[in-house]
User: What shape does this take?
Amino acid sequence: MSSTTDSSITFIGQQITIYGGMIILGLGVLGNLINIIVFLSLKIFRQSSCAFYLTIMSFVNIGQLLSGLLTHMMSAGFQIDWTVMSLSFCKFQWTFFQLCTLMSYTCLCLATIDQYCATCTRLRFQQWSSIKIAHRLMTISIIICILLLIPYPILTNYVLSPVSNSIACATTNMIMARYANFFVALSLSSFVPDFITVVFGSMAYRNVQQIAYRTVPLVRRELDKQLTTMVLVQVIINLFTNVPCSTLNTLLFAVNTIKDPVVFQKVYFAFLVSVIFFYSYFAVSRNAYN
Assistant: This one.
């Protein structure tokens, strides 16, 4: 009975991964391409620091979908793990996916903070909303993210999974495993950006509510309202899709450590569903920008 239940759970998880992944991958890539075209084709967006952050985020979101969701869909849905076919690809895929993830959340944080500064009444804060400063901050962010991920290609290798008894692309270094799961995935890619975006997003929303009572050019006022709405929608969607996936990913790491196949199977099913739910914000976000 237990074996039949486990098989059913596995089958359902695979179907959700395949069909849900296909829909989200197609809509996500198309939506982000539309965002890039809109932001780069209109002069008013090209001159906006917030739109610059959102443009970079759309580029890295496409990279995240192709390196993360597509690989996950092939592995969990079709049982085709591209990472075990080449150690070089194994190292590249894990590192590139994490780079896109960190950059995506960094862009969202910077865009949220930028909109708070742009809509703030204090001139000193408004000066931080500048395209030149945005270019510098983005360059610094890329360098920091790359430095944080230096251990990934060095310590990534093929390991034998104690649960599935098959070769997997991971790390044999427990310090690196904890660094990747708890510091990079749980902190830098989840709770820290969620906290920053919620706090500054709330303050930016409050500023926009008061902007009608200030002497601001009509075009600038409408642009700030539009960009703030874009950012806030992305923040809300990301908050409700990111936390469950990150939490279950960390829990899955802990369950995998104690080597309990029954508990692992149930947690892994929940993780598969949360991954699809997490990637859905790539597809949904396109409606916020258009």
User: Anything to note?
Assistant: The chain has eleven helices and two strands. The CA atoms of residues 203 and 261 lie 46 Å apart.
